[in-house]
Amino acid sequence: MKYSKKDYEERPWLKFYEEENIPGNIEYPDCSMVDMVMQSAEKWPDNVAYVYYGHKVTYKNFVKKIEKAAKALKNYGVKEGDRVTICMPNTPEGITMVYAVNMVGAVCNMVHPLSSEKELEYYIKVAESKYVLVIDAVFDKIYRLRDTAQLERIIVVRPSDGLGFLKKKLYNTLHVKKVKLPSNDSRVVLWEDFIANSYFYQGNYYEERSGEDPAVIMYSGGTTGAPKAVLLSNLNINAESICDGTMIRQITPGATVLSILPLFHCFGLGVCIHTPLCKGMGCILIPAFSHKQFADIIKSNKPNFIVGVPTLFEALINTKLKQDDLKSVTAVICGGDALNQTLRDRVNHYLKAHGSNAKIRVGYGLTEGSGAVCLSPENSFSDGIIGAPLPDTYIKIVKNNTFKQATVGEEGEICISGPLVMMGYLNDEAETAQALRLHPDGRLWLHTGDLGSLREDNLFYFEQRVKRMIISSGYNIYPTHLESIINSHEAVLTSIVIGIDHPYKGQVPKAFVVLKPGYRPGKRVEREIRELLERNVPVYALPAAYEFRDELPKTLVGKVAFKKLENEEKAKK
Known about the structure:
There is one protein chain. By secondary structure, the chain is α/β, with parallel strands linked by helices. It has a domain at 470-571: 2-Layer Sandwich (GMP Synthetase, Chain A, domain 3), CATH 3.30.300.30. 31% of the residues lie in helices and 25% in strands. The chain has 18 helices and 27 strands. Strands 1, 2, 10, 11, 12, 13, 14, 15, 16, 17, 18, 20, 21 and 22 form a 14-stranded mixed sheet that branches. Strands 7-6-5-3-4-8-9-19 form an eight-stranded mixed sheet, sandwiched between helices. A three-stranded mixed sheet has the order 25-26-27, with helices on both faces. A hairpin with a 2-residue loop joins β23 (470-472) and β24. α4 crosses α5 (92-103) and α13 (310-317) crosses α14 (341-353).
């Protein structure tokens, strides 16, 4: 394809596209997410769609499972436009429900199973969801919300439900401590009974939907750190899969992806689940990652793709494998947080030493951008590189608090435009207006709150985040949200939360607390603050340490100098 001078000015990375034979523009089908998967099933019916603890399901059978779940949803009264909450790790029932909900024209409300009860209540209420699919381990939290959230149906999944008969029987015998379910509440139904009810539905269960129709709700910290419901369309998620296929040449039918990143994480759903399922690939579903089991997972599955966050790759290079155990690996993608050159070099060395010719690539993205929006080249790396935007995605760097474009090499805010940009924040016009802004060039741009630069090589580099955020094992933790909860305790005058280094997780939160006059620091107050947080935030976001102080350091303008606290913590190392 030939480009004009204006094209090159707007998208200087087109030169990279030409070198790598990547199309700059793509025509996207006007269809739903499940339509894309059904097209895969028509092309490659006998390819394996997913593997779950050795149990394999072909595309042909996967679509049958989706259809049964869609019929069951209709039998229970789910209508077009309804929101169905999916509170699941990566299991067959979780991904089946995503596409079944999409098939009946409803919207998936994706939530983290480790969320606090208060957060789950917020997620369910803001989405106005009356139906929940939940893993049995966290059923009790959902069940306590049945009346306040006015739930009509709670569908409960046991981890063994997606296994073959013999493996299921063995798993239940050896591993599962069954969660006791109420026997007299018709709102609660086990997955197997839910599916059995599909046989009673004889009507239409497929609703034709367009690319512009809403498909998925994910959660992000927005610009303030308080949870925001990000509304994504069918086109958003489909464009992610199509663009990934153009940027990564190793994406081919029959290849397998280690699907460790969770489906309630946008990078997990978009890159590790939907992309492979649209390309005839196989997802190796890992519901709970353990670095102790990493070697066995790789040896038994022989994946072609490993996609993860930096902490996963830290685990990989500390895994004992034999010389050719990674021979199957053809592509390695890192997202979720910055990858430093030291870790990148160690990963590449480890890959080569264990039989793989792959080199780690860095993806950059955010929930508001449907997952990945940018990917580094296959054979080049520099500290901070995030590479070239995906096709049809425009990225520009603007000067702080302006719409004026920064010069080459100048740091500014990363802004994104194109088919990957979210529809908006659900029921929050003010936050949406803050994030999505119409520029003088006539385009609607997503302001990310991240700082970056476009360099002389026509590629983008990540510099730092504008908004305070801690990334722990790939999960975003927003200090201001934690501080607002801590400050609500009757004994607390003020607080500040910072990230401190952790050998495996990257960073974990630490809370510095100043008490009101008349209150003394001690184990009782610390316990009360901790319990307050446990009721309101997920386990992964809880501070790893608390420190009580008489006062907090201040900047010249009177704000808390959290950078000084960060430097103090680093000096202790």
